[in-house]
Design brief:
single chain, alpha+beta
């Protein structure tokens, strides 16, 4: 739901930011709400124990920050279609609200095989009582019990509920509280990626933003859904009946030669109008 602190949580978690992250657009800043999908990433300090031995040296997560306003439900649906692990952010003082429930329904129907969901009880520092007091703990238990009952009626029954404060006191001067608990829950729910696709699998990517770089070309930021593509490969843009050759690519500001399924990629091509 709007004002539950989703973008504040994304900011607290993020280590690398894309060109479209944390409400950078002037319209979002003017209205003070998320209007578009935002992308950023973070990595765990250690590889989860159940993934060790598979050759992984780092586990990176891409955050898709979705709006919470009712009028932007189509944008939420677009974000959910490229998401496999959901974080449902709930205002601890207000509990489930209308768009909270709508977001939960979208998550239920959008992905055929989601990895699961973590419920974040945000703004716990605003609950009645002093920190660690019996009153605060009683309030937290009351909210947690109510949400557990609601979640039991969904496909995400048993989802962990993590109390935290992404922006304590609504000020940037205090560090987030409770993030290690959330990272631990995410690490536990992370699975080994699916096996590589067969060679020759057609490339398919969901493009969400497009902008021009002077002297470079036009960058399409996207999530790779299928196949792979490399520099100098020819890609097709079906909506405009165009084919363009890939000039360069980045994955969260890191230049790469090839991207494949699951990658968050900025793909630069020439002779393409950035405002299409």
């Amino acid at each position: 739901h709007v004002d539950s602190g989703k973008t504040s949580l994304a900011r607290a978690l993020s280590q690398v930011y894309s060109t479209a992250s944390l409400d950078k657009s002037p319209q979002s800043q003017e209205r003070g709400i998320t209007l578009d999908l935002g992308f950023s990433s973070f990595s765990l300090p250690d590889v989860p124990e159940h993934l060790q031995g598979n050759g992984y040296t780092r586990v990176q997560y891409t955050i898709v920050d979705c709006p919470g306003h009712a009028s932007l439900i189509r944008t939420v649906i677009g974000g959910s279609l490229i998401t496999s692990l959901y974080i449902l952010v709930v205002d601890a003082c207000k509990g489930f609200q209308t768009q909270t429930s709508e977001g939960l329904v979208v998550a239920e129907i959008a992905s055929a095989e989601p990895l699961g969901m973590v419920v974040v009880l945000n703004k716990c520092d605003m609950l009645p009582g002093a920190p660690d007091s019996a009153e605060r703990q009683a309030e937290l238990q009351k909210v947690t019990t109510k949400i557990s009952r609601l979640m039991a009626m969904t496909r995400f029954r048993g989802a962990p509920i993590i109390p935290l404060s992404a922006c304590p006191g609504a000020t940037a001067t205090r560090p987030p509280e409770g993030l290690p608990l959330l990272m631990g829950a995410l690490a536990t729910m992370t699975r080994v990626p699916p096996p590589p696709e067969p060679a020759g699998t057609p490339f398919l990517a969901a493009v969400d933003h497009c902008f021009q770089l002077k002297g470079q070309g036009t960058v399409m930021t996207s999530t790779v859904l299928r196949g792979s593509v490399g520099i100098n490969d020819l890609i097709e843009i079906p909506a405009f009946h165009l084919q363009r050759r890939v000039k360069s690519m980045q994955v969260f500001r890191r230049p790469v030669q090839r991207v494949s399924r699951g990658d968050r990629a900025g793909i630069c091509v020439s002779q393409l109008e950035g405002k299409l």
